[in-house]
Amino acid sequence: MRFRAHVAVCCALALAAIGARAQSESLDAELPDSDSAYLPSAAALSPGRAFLYSAAVPGAGQLYAGRKRGYAYLAGEAVLAVGYLLSRSDASDIEQQYIDAVRAGVTFDGVGDFDEWNQEDFEHATDYDNWLNTYTDDNGQPIDRVGPFYWKDIEDFRTQDPRDPAQGDIPDSAARLVSKQLRTDSNAAFKRTRGILGAMIFNHLVSAIDARVSARIHNADMNDNGLGLRAEPVDAGGVIAVTWARGF
Question: What is the mean pLDDT of residues 137-161?
Fold first, then answer.
């Protein structure tokens, strides 16, 4: 959760920085190399502003620039947002199911309490039939936080050491295998959720770039078709004539 939040914040900051740079570039852009100076059109748009609009809400910058494809970006964002929320909810539900399955299938051989367990302990329980199977720095002894545990459906084998071939094979706990599959399904669901989140970030970025380009195209079209104020030298004496001109 914290990792996804950090990724989202970093992406938002990156988009804001790119947008600020785009705004600065649009304000500092050099005029064409010409003897003419044109008055800015009242309908001129800010490419930087269009970028920021779509960076915040995909499609907003396109609508600002008069491009109807902005609705497609909006629709895509809505679909992705709904998919993300549903996928995240599904992943969380499956994760809770596997944790509940561990709590229902595992018991302690002596003192132990699930309230002391962290997420890693539940994951270990789905991988091993008893604590002797897990890695530890305490010479194979259970960590105090976890306590010695075993799966109830193989209670008769809880004292066996699977590392001793003379004791024979310990049968797999059916309850453990069920919880492990739920854990696998939960991880797959969270991976799918991250993929949808990545698609949402990509939609924001593509929409922002497209909105900036759309605003620049709009301004270019206005300059080609609008009225302009032209200043031209008349003679060597420094007399300048100012005339109105319309682009065709």
Answer: 72
